[in-house]
Design a protein that fits this description.
By secondary structure, the protein is mostly beta strands. It has one helix and 35 strands. The strands form eight sheets. Strands 8-9-10-11-12-13-14 form a seven-stranded antiparallel beta sheet, with no helix packed on it. Strands 16-15-7-6-18 form a five-stranded mixed beta sheet, with no helix packed on it. Strands 17, 19, 20, 21 and 22 form a five-stranded antiparallel beta sheet that branches. A hairpin with a 5-residue loop joins strand 31 (about 360-370) and strand 32 (about 375-385).
Length: about 425
């Protein structure tokens, strides 16, 4: 076991949370939220660092997405910003890295649900494609087409179009951002502010996709994929379960989500270019973050966040439908967990104290009967100790046959460290 290295900390940013880690053909790519206040709202960027030598050294911090904001103040009461939160990465079969992340317009997100606009319709179909809706001050709605053009409710073309992350233009004239309200305010050094547009997107959560085709060196602009994955019963919130997604042995990419109604799973069979949604997942009473692992026979295990015995679910059809699974004999406080398969072992990282403290990796082994038929996971009594003291969100990646890397929160809303562990 190596010493922990600070990957995201005060010396290279502000307040870091929510680690995501993948191994892209020998390059470790670490991602995190980089916020101003340490809260789950306000001005939060997405950032990455890369390692070409198995985690021994890391590149400089790179910001890959900045939200539109009227203020970038570090004041905990600052809500004058849209924000990205909770990255989840997976490596596609073609080598691309896909990152899904939750996005909120200017608000406190789920931390003040009364401001989310539950009754406003956010999407509608036009020419067979589900498109976003925006509203003017009088409640009239307009439709954003795939090319960014804006049409009115009579389907007539307007002079408006949308670029980038919600930037509204009337011809060549910039009109503000659809995810913000009112006038611009304070900007900190190295950031920019803008103002709200006359059209507004409904205040709810959205799922955005970023892709890298060069092992995390450069990234595409964030793209809203919510129209393709949203179900009516989701309510005003659908969020990414952060950490790592799963690329199955068949080449399907699975990303865990959760909603007000329950947990859910989206999948892509074309390297993350298009996404589909299964039906809502009845996840053992869990409506929160979860993580997945694939067994040798193709079945997929899901492990949830609830405190006490870890909730579990199973899919026998590569993530389309899910059913209740046997709970592993693992107890943990209520906190995000991360699963990883390494050889014949399944690893599950989590805090082990009464609260978010004392990080461990629970270890299970895939078991077989005498005829070599797969039977399930046999969880071992021994755990791998990660640290003593504070331990919250975490994410693991395989480095080689005998070594994994784990990225985890080592301090509340401030520091994320990396450690190599022999397995």
């Amino acid at each position: 076991m190596s010493d922990a290295k600070i990957i995201f900390g005060k010396d290279n940013g502000f307040e870091f949370r929510i680690p995501s880690l993948v191994n892209a053909d020998g390059v470790l790519v670490a991602a995190a939220d980089n916020g101003r206040s340490g809260c789950d709202w306000g001005y939060i960027e997405l950032c990455v660092r890369r390692s070409l030598d198995g985690g021994e050294s890391w590149s400089e911090l790179k910001t890959i997405a900045r939200p539109p904001a009227r203020s970038t103040s570090s004041d905990v009461e600052n809500t004058k910003s849209a924000f990205f939160i909770d990255p989840c990465m997976a490596v596609a079969p073609n080598g691309d890295i896909v990152m899904l992340v939750t996005f909120f317009p200017e608000s406190k997100g789920v931390h003040n649900m009364k401001y989310l606009e539950r009754k406003k319709i956010a999407f509608t179909r036009f020419d067979g494609v589900k498109c976003p809706i925006i509203y003017d001050r009088d409640g009239n709605y307009f439709i954003i087409l795939e090319n960014g053009a804006v049409i009115d409710k009579s389907k007539a073309k307007t002079a408006f179009n949308i670029k980038d992350t919600g930037e509204l233009y009337k011809g060549d004239e910039y009109m503000g951002n659809i995810y913000l309200n009112g006038a611009m305010s304070k900007a900190e050094e190295g950031t920019a502010t803008t103002f709200g547009s006359p059209f507004k997107s409904p205040k709810r959560s959205y799922i955005f996709l970023l892709k890298s085709t060069d092992k995390g060196e450069t990234w595409s602009a964030p793209k809203d994929i919510t129209p393709s994955i949203l179900n009516e019963e989701d309510g005003a919130f659908i969020g990414v379960a952060p950490g790592s997604g799963l690329t199955t042995s068949s080449g399907r990419i699975l990303i865990p989500l959760y909603t007000e109604s329950g947990t859910a799973c989206i999948y892509s069979d074309d390297n993350g270019n298009t996404w589909q949604r299964n039906q809502r997942l009845p996840y053992t009473g869990n409506k929160d973050e979860w993580t997945m692992a694939e067994a040798p026979d193709g079945r997929i295990y899901g492990f949830g966040r609830d405190k006490g015995k870890v909730p579990a679910t199973l899919s026998f059809d590569r993530g389309i439908t899910w059913g209740k699974g046997d709970k592993p004999p693992i107890k943990a406080p209520k906190c995000q967990k991360n699963a990883l398969v390494a050889g014949n072992k399944v690893l599950l990282s989590h805090p082990s104290g009464k609260g978010r403290e004392n990080g461990v990796i629970s270890v299970g082994e895939f078991s077989y009967d005498k005829k070599n038929n797969f039977r399930g996971i046999k969880w071992l009594d021994e755990e791998i100790k990660v640290n003593s003291g504070f331990f919250a969100y975490s994410c693991m990646a395989k480095i080689d046959d005998n070594t994994i890397g784990i990225l985890y929160e080592n301090k509340p809303s401030g520091e994320i460290v990396f450690k190599k562990i022999k397995i």
